[in-house]
């Protein structure tokens, strides 16, 4: 399972939030948040709790940020 950074950015934009607003919510600089959103710095569990809250994502829909990797050997070609 992988974190979908593109979905994170898309959700932020869809909610009309700026990088600066997200950075302020996390208590980090704009540059640091940008690096987190782009996968260059890790997003901690604590960060993710704040981010999902700011984005209004519920526990029931939190899975939108995760993708499941399926290896080629597990796929069925029809």
Approximately how much beta-strand content do the residues carry?
Answer: 5-15%
- What is the CATH superfamily label? lambda repressor-like DNA-binding domains
Shape: globular
The structural domain count equals 1
Protein name: HTH cro/C1-type domain-containing protein
GO molecular function: DNA binding
Domain HTH cro/C1-type: 8-62
InterPro entries: Cro/C1-type_HTH (IPR001387), Lambda_DNA-bd_dom_sf (IPR010982)
Provide keyphrases for this structure.
78 residues; mainly alpha; two-stranded antiparallel ribbon; 2 strands; 47% helix; Lambda_DNA-bd_dom_sf; DNA binding; Cro/C1-type_HTH; HTH cro/C1-type domain-containing protein
Question: How would you describe the overall organization of this protein?
Answer:
This protein has 78 residues and is mainly alpha-helical. α2 crosses α3. The chain has 4 helices and 2 strands; from the N terminus they run βααααβ. The chain has a single domain, classed as Orthogonal Bundle (434 Repressor (Amino-terminal Domain)), CATH 1.10.260.40. It starts with a strand and ends in an 11-residue tail after the last strand. The protein is 47% helix and 5% strand. The mean pLDDT is 91. Strands 1-2 form a two-stranded antiparallel sheet.
Describe the SSE topology.
Layout: E1 2-3, H1 5-14, H2 19-26, H3 30-37, H4 45-55, E2 66-67
Antiparallel strand pairs: 1-2
Pfam families: HTH_3
Domain HTH cro/C1-type: 8-62
Organism: Domibacillus antri
